[in-house]
Write a structure and sequence with these properties.
The complex is a heterotrimer of chains A (322), B (334) and C (304). By secondary structure, chain B is an alpha/beta fold. Chain B has ten helices and twelve strands. In chain B, β9 and β10 form a beta hairpin. The chains are: A mainly alpha (322), B alpha/beta (334), C mainly alpha (304). Chains A and C meet through α1, α6, α7, α10 and α11 of A and α5, α6, α10, α11 and α13 of C.
Amino acid sequence: MSARFVSAKVLGSLATLAFVVCFNFFLFRIVEGDPVANLFRGRNLSQSQRAELTKQFGLDGSTGTQFVRYLQQTASLNLGRSYSNNQPVVDEIRRKAGPTIALVGISTLLSTIFGVLLGIAAAWRRRTKADYSITSFTMATYSMPDFWLGMLLLTGFAVGLGWFPVGGIVDPNSDATGLAKLADQAKHMFLPALTLTLAYLGEYALVMRSSLVETMREDYLVLARAKGLRDILVRNRHAVPNALLPVVTLSAINFGFVLAGAIAVEAIFSWPGLGLATFDALQGPDLPMLQGLFLLFSAAVIAANLVADLLYGYLDPRVRTR
Amino acid sequence: MSAAPDRSGLPLLSVRDLHVTYPSRSGPVPAVRGVDIDLAVGETLGLAGESGCGKSTLAGALLRLLPRGTEVSGQVLFDGEDVLTMRPGRLRAVRWTDMAIVFQGALHTLNPVQRVGRQIGEAIRLHSPRTSGSAVSSRVGELLELVGLPARRARDYPHQLSGGQRQRVLIGLALACEPRLLIADEPTTALDVMVQAQVLRLLEDLQQRFGLAVVFITHDLSTLAAVCRRIAVMYAGLIVEEGPSQAVFEAPAHPYTRALAAAFPVIGDPAFRMNPSGVAGDPPDPRELPSGCPFHPRCPAVVKPCSSIKVQLWPAGPERGAACVHVPGSGVPV
Amino acid sequence: MSSVAVPSARRITWSRRRRAVAQAWAEYRRHAPGMIGLAILAAAVAMALAAPLLADPAGQHAVNTTANPAWANPSKFGPLGTDHLGRSIMTQFIWGARISLLVGLAATVLAMLIGSVVGIAAGFFGGWFEAVLMRLTEWFLVIPFLPLAIVLAAILGPSVENIILVIGITSWPFPARLIRAQVLTLKERLYVDRSRALGASNWHLMTRHVLPNVSGLIIANTTLTVPVAILSETTLSFLGLGDPSRASWGKMLQEGFAAGALTQQAWWYYAPPGVGIMLVVLAFTLCGQALEEVLDPRLRDQRA
């Protein structure tokens, strides 16, 4: 892959990130109301106290000054303090990032892999019963609100059958460590991960299926068969790699939606990650927290898009050479 | 002109009563309706006809490459073995090592995301699995140079090559496993005039050098006259004339061939490509074939028996046949 | 008395269009999943429109009397039981359909309008204008939808109109990109140049030539965007950003969750809204896929 291609994509991503940082600032400044008054509702503040607090929260000075200060602070990863508990936003995020990365990471991996496999199976057995059942199943899960699926799984398997814990990441009563703790966490993660996986694998399956169906008409497959290649190899070596290309693009687009889905799903399962943090921050609204989370989510999506672009360039030479 | 074929012994390829029917929502569509072909070792046969006459279907049928669900009946005997009844393993072994196809070099005939050399190498590796990597590379280079391309082109992707270069790659690919029979399906149709001539010369060269038997499919009758020893003309799924190419071209026995041959083609002229025969009307829809002789609605020499008689290749001279009632050997009074 | 008049060009075009629509409809009718989707949609829309006839609007407000006990399951209070405030689930379900469908459709229309205008303008005019518009589109695409929607909803305040606005504003980049690509391929066609040679203005070209040819894409895309809009409304309502004074299926889920319907195992509370959403989304998707096949001749041949 040429350096020119890679650097062009990276620069593009950085430019988008810069745009988001600025956009982030102006977006939150439009919120009306005095945050200081909101926070200290019901408490009588004197003028000087209010001025002091305003300064503390960085809300003094003109918009221009605020903007410059904001840029400086963001560059040094100072994202302010949460309105709810006065802790630095960066620390809060750092604490809660782990569970979300684990949850979203595993769900994305599983939904992509299973979605693609299901799509291949459906396309290969096109118009048979297997195809229709796979397609119906994936369309059904795709049509459900992701968190609703979580609700059903929660009531069914956790509350109803008691197979899984009802929420949280660890059993609050146990003090297990090491492997036992990991097992406990895995048990807690099972249902939320299943929810996110099922919710998004449908789209992968459908896209992979239609992409493969279209690829199967291509002439180069006939050539591959003519060379004496077995049908399975024709599919796996020639059809599937070509058909995977739209899926790569899809996964980049989907990443933003998976993050969004994680917000509601974490809320349902009380999973202590960034999604739950967003849900809680909405109740305030805890503006610095929301601002920091917005920035983080955007950066994550930009990064995901960059990875997908580079991966696509690696897989499809038509894009990176002329 | 091609070298004299080895006519001793059995023909290399023997097609008997081949029928190919496609399924469709509105009923079965007959694309090939009873074709016989004989090809000796090293012999070149040209197959001419307009689009839709069934010639490409015929090519696909020879190696059983038609889509699933297509009905194929008859016999395709290669060296005495019937391709149509071969077990899948045997068929895969025969493909490319005995018979190979050169497709039209459109952009998507080759896998767009794989390098050209790798696609040629795949064929080699498939049939000689124990060949070392370096041996495969050098063979690939050899093949590319054989078709007039520098060996370093192996690293290119199909979209980086011109149409003519892609066509050469396809030819080199077809020769990778030293087949005895080459089926060239419209190898020059999409190319510019100058490139057409070059590719044709290349094919002639290779045919002579390796003693290949070639089935050359095209709509351009004049090309066949120069390159092949025998010509068969197809119309509506049937062979309507066949014989030594010079004779067929200069003195056609079937009215359709006459029209094809007399159309004073200007190679590359799009008007000629659209209507090579110069005859009014279009070839018949395979779903609604005319009764009797399929050409009779457009034939300038049509007479009463034409609409009802079942035509076959009647003798029309030494080693010649034509499916027309006007041929003396037809025995039909006109 | 009068001899046969030569029909005007406009008349011919319209009769041709009518025929094309009739043909498309006949083609659509052969599509079983598409017809099922259409049937579901018809039922949903009928239910939503007939809401005042089917259920008492007062039922949306808290009651909790012996006549309407809280948490009653369907066997005690039919047909769908009551919620934690004693309100009939069925009433909320019927009225909730209105908001969910309304927001879904209105937001989609908004998104398609903006997206079409941007897409057609960008594709048609090209140059730096197009570059700027496309950059803008890319930026909006990258910003993750939900955080942006949350922020906008928090800023604008919870109301049905604002939710429509928020979803519309966050969804327009998708169709804009597709439409622009289509317009670019159309521009390649000769007739645009020929019309220009005949003196056609840009406006004429855009409305008479480009628009009819992208309308198929727009229609198919609209049917596929509505489900996304409905799901977005559901999520936003669940997060508490929806209109607190009107019932919607998403709001039912939010209230149920907050009131502990999950631990109470009050399935009659949270199952119906989810099923409703699922059926409507599924219906739109089926119709959208059927439309795509009908309107895109390429796909049609593949079905043979």
